Every structure is written in C-alpha cells, then in structure tokens.
Amino acid sequence: MTILFWIAVGTFVLTMLAALDLIVGNRSVATLRNVPPNLAPRPPRVSVIVAARNEQRNIREALQSLLNLAYPDYELIVVDDRSEDNTGLLLDGMAGTDRRLKVIHVELLPPGWLGKNHALWIGSQQATGELLLFTDADIVMEPTVVARAVAFLEENRLDHLAATPSIRMPTTLLGMFGTAFIVFFSLFSRPWKARDPRSRYHIGIGAFNLIRTPVYRQVGGHETIRLRPDDDIKLGKIIKRAGFRQDVVYAPEFMAVEWYASLREVIAGLEKNAFSGADYSISLVLSGALLLTLCSIWPFAAVFLTHGTVQGIYLATTALIVLVVADSARFHRARPWHAVGYPLTSALFVFILLRTMVLNLWQGGIYWRGTFYPLEELKANRIPWHSLDKPA
Q1: Residue 196: phi, psi to the nearest 5?
Q2: What is d(CA 26, CA 336) in angstroms, rounded to the nearest whole number?
Q3: Architecture (CATH level 2) of domain 29-260
Q4: Mean predicted confidence (pLDDT) in 335-352
Q5: SS3 73
Q6: pLDDT band at 392; cut points 50, 70, 90
Q7: Mean pLDDT of 148-156
Q8: Distance, CA of 223 to chain centre
C-alpha cells in the first residue's frame, strides 16, 4: 500500500467521524417550530437589546419586526453606537411613534471596549426585564419567536437560550458560502453539546441570546468580554463556565438575516472575528486551515488526480461530504444543492482565515466600523475556562 492510499483512508475516516458527529448532533437539537407559543398567565418581562452602528440599510425592517412581536410584556432598547449615517435619525423617528422603543445615543467609546460590546452593556443597564434578549440590528423576527423561546427556556429551566436564524444571501456563491459556514461553525463549536454540564462546549449566537437577567449580572455581562470581537459565543462561555444551564434551538423559520451582501463584505466582515475565534492562536489557525484543506478541498481535487483504489476512496469521501452538507442545510433553511459548492467555499474560508490572521498580525490589531483595536489589548481580554482565572 502506498502513502497516497493511507492518506486517502485517513481522510475518509476523519470525514466519516465528522459526518456522524454532524448528523447525530443536528438531530439532537430542538427546533423552535415544535414549541407552541404557550406562556404562563404572567410571563417574565423581556428586554430586547440591540446595538446599532451605521445600520440604515436594514434597521427599519428589523425594528418593525421587533415592534410586532406577539409577546405581552416587553421593551425594546436600541443603542445607537456613534453612527455616521442616518441610523440615529431613523431610530428617533420610530421611537416617536412607539413608546416601547427606547433609543440611547452613544457619542464616545471609552477606552478598553469594543463598540458593540459597550453598546449592549449600556443597553443592559437600562433594562427592566427579567429576561434579556440580545439581538443584532439586521435580524428580522417572526411575531411568535420570543414567546416560543421563553416557553422553551421556562419549560427546560434554562438560564441561557441561543437560537439560529436563516441566512439571506443575494447570490448563489454567497448562499453556498453561508451553507458551508454553518458546517464549519457546527463542527468547531458543536452546539448540541452546550446543554451538557460536563462538556466545555458552549454556545452563543448574536442573532438571539436570551438570558436571565440575574445570571447576566452575576457573570459580569458584556463588561467581562468587553474586548472580545466574538462577543456572542464568549457570552455563552462565561455563562456555561459559571455553571448555569444553556441550550440552543434551531429557528430558521422565525428569524432571518441578510448576512453579507457581497463577497467583499464577507471577506471584510470576517476580519473582525476569524482570528479571535481561534483565541489569536497562530498554530490553531494553521492547523485548522490544514485540516480543512486535507478533508474539504483535497478530496475533490484527488478524484481527478488519482486513479484505481485511491480514486475510489476519494469518490466515496466526496460523495459523503456533499450528502452530509446537504443534510445539514435542511436544518437551517438553506438550499441542499448548495452543497456542490462546498470545495470552492472551503477554499474561500481557508483564504479568509489565513488572510485575517496575517492582516491582524501585520496591522497589530483590527479595524472595525471605523475604530482600531490593538491586538495586544484584544489578546489581554482572554476568557479562560476557569472563572477563577480573572480575565484582564
């Protein structure tokens, strides 16, 4: 047997293990469509908190969907984070017609904070709800989503519930990338393990993080993760490490987001958190890029570059990859046929990972929405697993 044969076998085995994890994991996550919006006679008050900076393109539709929520007791707090477009004017206009909408304008960003994290923190300080719902300024929600989520959280006695949206993409290539990114994220974070108190896997999703207010206060909220670009999943981490109960539900029928409008936006947008998601570890980024190349790109090339038994193994590997990606797409309202673009979008993701790491190191930090954040400061806000190790 040649070395190419054993590489092919090893790749197939790794692919099979990842496929089983994804197939079983996806089916173990609850779906919000199976949760009726049945609430207690006096349901907990919910404070919906949104950070907005230069969001004039999508914010009106998103906020109107929040004002149309079929939930009996909630408030909507939107923090305008130093917007330079018409976001602030749009918010003030909407607030003038609906008293449930409270707008806070932030003019200056204090040292040691990312803008979004600071805005969400400011909003949380004004909240009066027993539950806090952090969501993004471009998320469009179906009216019953909060009622269903609260019902699930109460029934399962959770302290934190994350929910996944569907992703709107204007082109086929971007749709394929969104489908592939869901697979990358799922295999990296394993969200189905978040409910297991014995596991260190945790979850947080910027589109929908529903948290009990006392829990948020106890873990320090966004102040603890004030310099984390990956604030959503790190919020889940500090909740999980403190011993609180969390889970995730699939909710693509009830939430949607226009993630990115162009390939340029995808590449620029992931500059913020692709490196931070790996905790600024060069070795982790390089090993991840190598693994993706070996298991998600090379098998498709090898079908045309090998022959005989080795080619047969790679044919089986690529067929398995496409089938599993298509299967995963069904849980997120993505198009299963987009799985055929998986090798191309995997190559794009590897490029983004490596480019982001090099760019962050070369610049000595990240530029995000008009503000520069030094890498030294970002690295200092490390979130260790043991909360006794106080983050800087």
Answers
A1: -80, 115
A2: 15
A3: Alpha-Beta Complex (3.90)
A4: 96
A5: coil
A6: very low
A7: 97
A8: 19
